[in-house]
Amino acid sequence: MSDEGESVKKDGAVASDNPSVEQQHIVQDSAHIRVSEEYDPQMPSLPIEVWEQVIDLSWEFDSVKACSLTVLLKDKKQVAHMARLVRREPYLKDAVKKVVLMGGDRDFEVLPHFGTFAAMLARQLTRAAKLEVHWAKWQTGLFHPDVFLHMTAFTSITHLRIYFVSFPSVLVFGRFVSALPQLKQLECAHVHFENGSFDKRSPVVRSFPTQFVLDGITGVEGVIDFVVGTTISAKLEELVLWRWGSVSTRDLAAHYERFQRLLQVIGSSLVSFEATLNGMSGKEPESDVKFIGSALNLSSNTNLEVLKLVIQDICAASRGWVDALLKTVSTKKLREVHIVYRWMISNPSLEIVLTALNEEECRRIDDFLTGKQFSKLTQVSFGLYTRQRNHVLPAAQAWWGELSSRFPKLRAKGIFRTTVLVDYMAL
Predict the structure, then answer these.
(1) What is the rounded average pLDDT for all residues in the chain?
(2) Whole-structure pTM value
(3) DSSP assignment, residue 346?
(4) 3-class SS of residue 327
(5) Does residue 198 register a pLDDT over 50?
(6) Which value, in Å, is the radius of gyration of the alpha carbons in the chain?
(7) How far apart are CA 74 and CA 99, in angstroms?
(8) What is the pLDDT of residue 49?
(9) Residue 263 resides in a domain
(10) Distance between CA 111 and CA 46 in Å, rounded?
(11) How far apart are CA 412 and CA 427, in angstroms?
(12) How many CB atoms lie within 10 A of CB 412?
């Protein structure tokens, strides 16, 4: 059987296997495997024998495993029940890996059971590594005055995700974050402050995460001000910007100084930077290029080693701003560059996808990344992230062939890679 055009499939990723060209690496990207964590109180009660069959027949073992390790708490009654259960069955102390505290369902509601959780389960969930708070309105008067002291007992929690939560002030938010002594990853999306002023009463930070994730370009302004205005960024090594919406350049420009200040404050401690961009509106390409090249200027991040750009809106991608962003990189320690184009329409035409890659821009990127400044560069990867019906794999070999001809210098150095990622779970 000929090796030409042969594809290999593994864990949703495919890469061409052709001995006549450089080996293409298969990228393992767990972000495209989605696990449902929703709780339906109306779900019918079925005999245990039925659920055993469901679990046995489930082809996605990781989904079942994740559910078994996650606790979802919506009110004081559920928290109290969980506390009694843990005391009655001590093995559960080590079994729970993630706790999700819910205020409302798609709406902000008060979270009175947070104080109950902190008081009753402190030092009980000894292996819980992740805490999430969703759709909640924080009201200080509902909690015991020592609620943050109770939170310091959760020494196993390293990952905090705050999703659609309203705090009375930046001070309260800061005390909450600082209460977790082993916090390593802070993830925020749509965090609001009733009193958004940042004053001298801002908390003394005692937790120093190494990874900071911002989900969305709006609803995180106050969080950025907190990071910039305190010492919490002292040990930040990884910054991830997810889901920058497809909005106008004018709207994005309103956030320019805030995001640029964030990158400057993190400065030389930043090792890895990832941004998911939907592209600009496409109406003012010259302004788009200018904005991206300034709002995400990486010149102050002199120890950057890994850079990843995920581009969602392919139609708006070939505007020259990828090249503009890359040219702000000043580090001499860059090891990896990953550029991923997400195409979420089934069965994409390769010709349409390639419109995202302007040939002139490709030439400039090829010249820039093969310069003397990047002598430590070991990999430049261009990925296509898509979903297919009926398990029809995209032409991984064609993707390689089309792109490799546009980056001859990177290919000659043996550091050019292409990948194809297929999200079957999204079908």
Answers:
(1) 80
(2) 0.81
(3) S
(4) coil
(5) yes
(6) 24
(7) 11
(8) 73
(9) yes
(10) 31
(11) 38
(12) 11
How does pLDDT run across 42-100, given as a tens digit for each residue? 556 778 777 776 666 555 555 555 566 889 999 999 999 999 999 999 999 999 999 99
What stretch of H or E contains 119? Answer: helix 113-120
Token match 């010249």: residue?
367
Distance CA(207)–CA(188), nearest Å, equals: 16
B/e letters for 92-105, b = 16+ CB within 10 Å, e = fewer, are bbebbbbbbbbbee
Structure tokens at 287: 């302004």
- Rounded to the nearest 5 degrees, what angle is found at the Cα of 56, between the Cα atoms of 51 and 60? 105
Instruction: Average the pLDDT over 145-163 and give the result.
Output: 96
Question: Cα–Cα–Cα angle for 146, 149, 155, nearest 5°?
Answer: 150
Query: How many domains is the chain partitioned into structurally?
Result: 1
**Residue 198 belongs to what domain range?**
7-426
Listed ranges 26-30, 149-153, 273-277; the one with the highest mean pLDDT: 149-153
| Amino acid at residue number 117 | F
**Structure-token pair, residue 320:** 């020259």
Strands 13-16 and 416-422: antiparallel
Collapse the DSSP code of 73 into the 3-class scheme (helix H, G, I; strand E, B; otherwise coil) and give the result: strand
pLDDT for the residue numbered 9:
39
The two three-digit tokens of residue 115, written as one number: 């104080």
| C-beta separation of 374 from 418 below 8 A | no
**Lowest mean pLDDT across 5-14, 212-221, 299-308, 377-386:** 5-14
Task: Tell me which amino acid residue 349 is.
Answer: S
Q: Which of 4-18, 192-206, 301-315, 329-343 has the lowest mean pLDDT?
A: 4-18
User: What are 72's strand-pairing partners?
Assistant: 100
Determine, yes or no, domain membership for 245: yes
Do 244 and 214 contact (CB within 8 A), yes or no? no
Structure tokens at 62: 């990781």
Q: Where are the beta strands (DSSP E) in 23-158?
A: 70-73, 98-102, 109-110, 130-137
Pairing of strands 13-16, 7-10: antiparallel
Label residue 427 exposed, middle or buried (CB < 10 Å: 0-12, 13-18, 19+).
exposed
Instruction: Say if 141 falls within a structural domain.
Output: yes
Question: Which range (14-23, 35-44, 178-187, 297-306) has the least confidence?
Answer: 14-23
Tokens of 334: 């860059």
Answer whether residue 1 is part of any domain. Answer: no
DSSP string computed for 249-287 = HHHHHTTHHHHHHHHHHHGGG--EEEEEE----SS-HHH
Antiparallel, parallel or unpaired: β 272-277 and 306-311? parallel
